């Protein structure tokens, strides 16, 4: 079966394709790069699920193939409602992630560890032609680091501290990130579901 990873973020596309190829080797995993002109839909939903569904419907309409789209965000307990599904728009889409991270760290300066709790949330929507989308969700708990560290991953990874590992998400190798991340977890769940659906077909 061919599965199109439907994201316009190349770092996210790499992560999604790596996890899916690792877990479901019989799947032919391709990205939107193979479908020139794929539109980038406006993410007007208010939840991760709604946005993932908007993205997967748009990709299926363009490709005609089974597609999977991902909507993710960072939730910070000390900044309620400011990021979450709006994480990309925090401080404006034109603002770099280095600047967004600096603004978050400034706002949280002096807060003790118990008040720095945060989590990444990832929702993926899977849709086959003629079917309705199906959503999966996973989270990765952590906290906001004191300073940015590491160069791996993307987005908010340099300020996302993993207490059990004693490092930020950006200090992990890609394989280590997949092991613990919101995206790794949810895509492994999706791969299991796909395998079951195939064997029941
Ligand atoms: P697509 O919508 O095309 O998939 P995007 O980058 O716009 O790409 P999202 O809307 O899901 O993806 O992104 C929400 C924000 O959360 C965005 O600013 C990301 O950089 C950030 N983000 C998502 N996953 C992340 C991760 O694993 N690590 C760090 N930041 C992440």
Please give a structural write-up.
This protein has 201 residues and is an alpha/beta fold. It has one domain (2-200): Maf protein. It is built from five helices and seven strands; from the N terminus they run βαβαβαββββαα. The chain has helices at residues 10-23, 48-63, 97-108, 174-180, 182-200, and strands at residues 2-5, 28-31, 66-76, 117-127, 134-144, 160-162, 167-168. The chain has a seven-stranded mixed β-sheet with strand order 2-1-3-4-5-6-7. The protein is globular. The structure holds inosine 5'-triphosphate. Inosine 5'-triphosphate binds next to strand 3.
Rg over CA atoms: 17 Å
Main sheet: strand order: 2-1-3-4-5-6-7
Beta-strand share of residues: 15-25%
Distance between the termini: 13 Å
Considering DSSP H and I runs of 4 or more, what fraction of the residues is helical?
25-40%
Instruction: Count the beta strands.
Output: 7
Average pLDDT score: 96
CATH topology: Maf protein
- Low-pLDDT stretches are none
H/E element sequence: EHEHEHEEEEHH
- Number of H- or I-type helical stretches: 5
Highest CATH level, the class: Alpha Beta
Domain module count = 1
CATH architecture: Alpha-Beta Complex
Structural class: alpha/beta
General form: globular
């Amino acid at each position: 079966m061919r599965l199109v990873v439907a994201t316009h973020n190349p770092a996210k596309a790499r992560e999604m394709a790596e996890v899916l190829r690792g877990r479901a080797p019989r799947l032919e995993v391709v990205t939107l790069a193979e479908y020139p002109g794929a539109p980038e839909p406006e993410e007007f939903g208010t939840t991760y699920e709604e946005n993932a569904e908007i993205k997967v419907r748009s990709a299926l309409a363009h490709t005609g193939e089974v597609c999977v789209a991902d909507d993710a965000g960072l939730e910070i307990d000390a900044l309620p409602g400011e990021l979450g599904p709006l994480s990309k728009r925090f401080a404006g889409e034109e603002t770099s992630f280095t600047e967004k991270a600096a603004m978050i760290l400034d706002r949280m300066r002096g807060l003790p560890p118990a008040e720095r709790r945060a989590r990444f949330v990832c929702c993926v929507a899977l849709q086959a032609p003629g079917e309705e989308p199906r959503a999966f969700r996973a989270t990765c708990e952590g906290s906001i680091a004191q300073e940015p560290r590491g160069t791996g991953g993307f987005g908010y990874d340099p300020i996302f501290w993993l207490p059990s590992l004693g490092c930020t998400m950006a200090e992990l190798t890609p394989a280590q990130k997949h092991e613990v991340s919101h995206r790794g977890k949810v895509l492994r769940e999706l791969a299991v579901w796909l395998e079951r659906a195939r064997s029941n077909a």
